[in-house]
Amino acid sequence: MRIALLGPPGVGKGTVAGYMSKEFSVPHLSTGEMLRSEVAKQSPLGKEAGGYMDSGALVPDELVVRILDSRMGGQDCKEGFVLDGFPRTAAQAEVLSETMKRGRVELDGAVLLQAGETIVVGRLSGRRQCRECSAIYHLRNQPSKKEGVCDRCGGDLYQRTDDAEGTVRERLAAYRKESGPVIAYYEERGLLRKVSAEGDLDVTLAGMREVLSHLG
Ligand code: AMP
Question: Model's pTM, two decimal places?
Answer without folding.
Answer: 0.94
